[in-house]
Amino acid sequence: MTEAEFVRRFGGIYEHSAWVAEAAAAEAAAAGDLDEIATLLAECVDNAATDRQLALIRAHPDLAGKAQIAGELTADSTAEQASAGLDQCTAEEYDRFQALNTRYKDKFGFPFVMAVRGSSRAEILAAFAARLENDATTEFETALAEIHKIARLRLQAMDAHE
Q1: Do 106 and 134 meet the contact criterion of CB atoms below 8 Å apart?
Q2: Is the pTM of this model over 0.70?
Q3: What is the pLDDT of residue 85?
């Protein structure tokens, strides 16, 4: 596939960050399988400047946040949050998510990111609370690791639909 075809196909794997696919396109367009593509995309993120990595983290929506309620999430984010039941929060759970989202962003300067597919609301809330105890460096690295998990899950979903 050409580099342009690669970017068209994989530009949405990293949330609102087509630059990842653009940076990997030359090498990844000739990749043999999705696992190799996932590795090349992740390496582009890991080798990017810190400000670019921060922009990638900030491109992610809050979990059970206002964008979800307003229907403003990407199709992938909508499906991922729904798979964890985040579209079915009770009023109490929704309020808890909003409070944690605010505390987290106030502390770290970016949204809480977690690969939620297959997790329950209770598990996500517990992870949220636990990760609020992290220092900024640990949480930055954790957010990037979770983003890589999300990307791999998105690639696997693409593969399953082909």
Answers
A1: no
A2: yes
A3: 82
- pLDDT, one tens digit per residue, over 55-64 is 999 999 888 7
The position carrying tokens 């080798």 is 47
Q: Enumerate domains of the chain plus CATH numbers.
A: 3-54 (no CATH), 60-160 (1.10.3330.10)
Whole-number pLDDT of residue 57: 97
For residue 131, what pLDDT is reported? 98
Q: How far apart are alpha carbons 151 and 32 in whole angstroms?
A: 17
The pair of three-digit structure tokens given for residue 37, joined into one six-digit string:
């593509």
**Do 134 and 107 form a contact (C-beta atoms < 8 A)?**
no
Which burial class, exposed, middle or buried, applies to 30 when counting CB atoms under 10 A from its CB (0-12, 13-18, 19+)?
A: exposed
Burial grade of 135 (CB within 10 A; 0-12, 13-18, 19 or more): exposed
Q: Distance of CA 11 to CAs 8, 18, 90, 154, 155, Å?
A: 6, 4, 34, 11, 11
| Residue 60 falls in the annotated catalytic set | yes
Q: DSSP letters along 28-77, please?
A: HTT-SSHHHHHHHHHHHHHTS-HHHHHHHHHTSPPTT-HHHHTT-S-HHH
